[in-house]
Design goal:
InterPro entries: Flavoprotein-like_sf, FMN_Rdtase-like_dom, ISF_SsuE-like. Pfam families: FMN_red. This protein is α/β, with parallel strands linked by helices and 189 residues long. It has one domain: Flavodoxin domain (Rossmann fold, 3-Layer(aba) Sandwich). Helix content is 43%, strand content 18%. Strands 1, 2, 3, 4, 5 and 6 form a 6-stranded mixed beta sheet that branches. The longest helix is centred in the C-terminal third of the chain and has 22 residues. The structure holds flavin mononucleotide (FMN). The site of flavin mononucleotide has 19 residues, from helix 1, strand 3 and strand 5.
C-alpha cells in the first residue's frame, strides 16, 4: 500500500500541530493510502556535523533516532512536515532534522527524489509564511513534488485545541492531504 509519513515538530503533548497533522492523515487515509505520524516530542535532534560520513556508511553517524525516521521516509511515497512557529521561524529541531535527512539522501541514493509532500505551519498569530518558506527549501532542493492547496498550509491556534476554531485553515490542510494522496496515486499509475 502507498504510504505517507508525517512528522510533527512540536514538543507539546497536547499539540495543535499534531491535531492538524491528524486531520491531514485522515484525508490521506480516505484516499486509500496509509498514513503514519511521527512526533519529535521526546527526541533530541542534533544538527548536521558536516562530517560527510553519510556518503560512506549510508546513514547519519549521529545516533539520536533520526536514522530510524530516515528509513521510514525511504519506504514512504509521501513526506509531510508540520512545525509550530517559534519566533517567526520553524522549531529548531525540525530544521536540524530536515538538513540531516537531505544530506543523507543526497550523499546516498537520492531517496527523496519524486516523493510528494510539503510543509505545514501552525502559530498563534504570525510567522507562518516564513516558516513554510524555510521548510520548503528542503523539498525543492531534494527533487520532491509539492502540491498546492486552496490557501497556504497555515493554521492558527495558540492554546491546545485552538486550531479547531480555524475551519478555513483545517480545510486548506484537508485539501493539501487530498492533493498529496491523489498525486501519489497518479504518479504510481
Ligand atoms: C518559544 C515559542 C515561540 C513562539 N513564537 C511564535 C511566533 O513567532 N508567532 C506566533 O504566532 N506564535 C508563536 N508561538 C505560539 C505557537 O506557535 C502556538 O502556540 C502553536 O499553536 C504551538 O503549536 P503546538 O501546540 O503544536 O506546539 C510561540 C510559542 C513558543 C513556545
Amino acid at each position: 500500500m502507498q504510504k505517507v509519513l508525517l512528522v510533527c515538530a512540536s514538543p507539546r503533548k497536547k499539540s495543535n500541530t499534531m491535531q492538524v497533522l491528524e486531520e491531514c492523515a485522515k484525508e490521506i487515509e480516505q484516499n486509500g493510502l496509509e498514513a503514519e505520524i511521527i512526533s519529535l516530542r521526546n527526541m533530541n535532534i542534533d544538527s548536521c556535523h558536516a562530517c560527510l560520513k553519510c556518503a560512506k556508511i549510508k546513514k547519519c553517524k549521529i545516533d539520536d533516532g533520526l536514522n530510524e525516521i530516515i528509513e521510514k521516509i525511504r519506504k514512504s511515497d509521501g513526506f509531510i512536515v508540520g512545525s509550530p512557529v517559534y519566533f517567526g521561524t520553524a522549531r529548531g529541531s525540525i530544521m536540524a532534522a530536515l538538513q540531516r535527512i537531505g544530506m543523507v539522501s543526497r550523499a546516498t541514493d537520492k531517496f527523496l527524489s519524486w516523493k510528494v509532500g510539503g510543509p505545514i505551519a501552525v502559530a498563534r498569530r504570525g510567522g507562518h509564511t516564513a516558516t513554510i518558506q524555510e521548510m520548503l527549501m528542503f523539498f525543492f532542493i531534494n527533487d520532491m513534488i509539492v502540491p498546492g492547496s486552496t490557501y497556504w498550509n497555515m493554521v492558527f491556534g495558540w492554546a491546545p485545541g485552538e486550531v479547531e476554531e480555524d475551519e478555513e485553515g483545517l480545510e486548506t490542510i484537508r485539501r493539501f492531504g487530498n492533493n498529496v494522496a491523489s498525486l501519489i496515486k497518479k504518479i504510481k499509475d
